[in-house]
Amino acid sequence: MYHMWSAESLEKKALEILQKYKNGALLLAPQAMDVDDFAEQNGATFDYANLSQDGSVLGCACFNDEILMVWNDDRTQEIPLDVKKGWILIDNSALECEVEGRIRFTIVHEYAHLKLHKRFYYQKPVEKIPRVECTVYQIEDESGRLPKTDEEIREW
Question: Residues with Cβ < 8 Å from 94, sequence gap 6 or more?
Answer without folding.
Answer: 48, 58, 59, 102, 103, 106
